[in-house]
């Protein structure tokens, strides 16, 4: 499994592909705009003109794109990945997508002798740069074992959660936890400012206690510097929350915290902030 194809070299994907090159793998890439892959090409990545050409030349294909519709088109569309990957190869979709779509792709892959894993991640741009992502995997155990060494280059937590779709369901759990937490950490800082406290000192006090969280430690310092560059886009978080809300409804669950967070982020998107990072939630209050 020495030849790896990578589709989706955005905020996180570019760092992930770099780690694979540094580890000695032959990495081929495809992006809609070749210029976006320039850093990887200078580092030694190979360029392919189409996703189909990429798929036909690799042992392992990794995709990390924006939306479920992109995943479906790439894998199941005309001249898609499943028509071009060879028997015995493995495709790992690291996009946060629909559990039902993950199952559908896995079933189609099984019929063609192609191993499929759904493996969404958490950790944002920081986790991608440091190779410390949490990777949540759904699929067959034998396929997982085959590519686990590759995934361990990208993440510090690499866990098989169950059959196809289980990785996506686990990512929904992750996003549900983050959604309400983002409200909590943002309101905490708004309160600190209103009380006339020094927010940086407040963070020093509470980050290591019971209030501590990844968002508090990694995102709120950006807020205090008015840095709203995306470690994770608001538009993608809205997409994720929409999937989680839809899945919850199918299970007969009511999740008011998640619904509130989704409405707040939708408001920011309507104000033209969908390309900013999730820490821009503070602008809802300001």
Automatic annotation (TrEMBL):
All copies of domain 3-hydroxyisobutyrate dehydrogenase-like NAD-binding, residue ranges: 165-285
UniProt key word NAD: yes
Active site: 171
Keyword NAD: yes
Keywords: NAD, Oxidoreductase
Transmembrane stretches, start-end: none
Highest rank taxon of the organism: Bacteria
PANTHER family xrefs: 3-HYDROXYISOBUTYRATE DEHYDROGENASE-LIKE 1, MITOCHONDRIAL-RELATED
Protein known as: NAD(P)-dependent oxidoreductase
């Amino acid at each position: 499994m020495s030849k790896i194809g990578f589709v989706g070299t955005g905020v996180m994907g570019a760092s992930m592909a770099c780690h694979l090159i540094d580890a000695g793998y032959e990495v081929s890439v495809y992006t809609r705009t070749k210029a976006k892959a320039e850093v990887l090409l200078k580092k030694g990545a190979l360029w392919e003109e189409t996703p189909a050409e990429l798929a036909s030349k690799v042992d392992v294909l990794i995709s990390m794109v924006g939306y479920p519709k992109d995943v479906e088109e790439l894998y199941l569309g005309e001249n898609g990945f499943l028509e071009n990957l060879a028997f015995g190869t493995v495709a790992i979709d690291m996009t946060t997508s629909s559990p039902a779509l993950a199952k559908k792709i896995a079933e189609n892959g099984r019929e063609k002798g192609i191993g499929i894993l759904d493996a969404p991640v958490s950790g944002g741009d920081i986790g991608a740069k440091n190779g410390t992502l949490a990777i949540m995997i759904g699929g067959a155990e034998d396929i997982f074992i085959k590519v686990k060494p590759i995934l361990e280059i990208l993440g510090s937590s690499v866990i098989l959660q169950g059959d196809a779709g289980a990785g996506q369901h686990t990512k929904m759990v992750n996003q549900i936890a983050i959604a309400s937490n983002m409200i909590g950490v943002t309101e905490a800082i708004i309160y600190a400012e209103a009380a006339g406290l020094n927010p940086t000192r407040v963070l020093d006090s509470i980050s290591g206690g019971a209030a501590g969280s990844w968002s508090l430690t990694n995102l709120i310092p950006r807020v205090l510097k008015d840095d709203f560059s995306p470690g994770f886009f608001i538009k993608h978080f809205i997409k994720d929350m929409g999937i989680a809300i839809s899945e919850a409804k199918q299970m007969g669950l009511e999740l008011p915290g998640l619904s509130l967070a989704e409405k707040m982020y939708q408001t920011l998107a309507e104000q033209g902030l969908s390309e900013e990072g999730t820490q821009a939630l503070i602008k809802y209050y300001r």
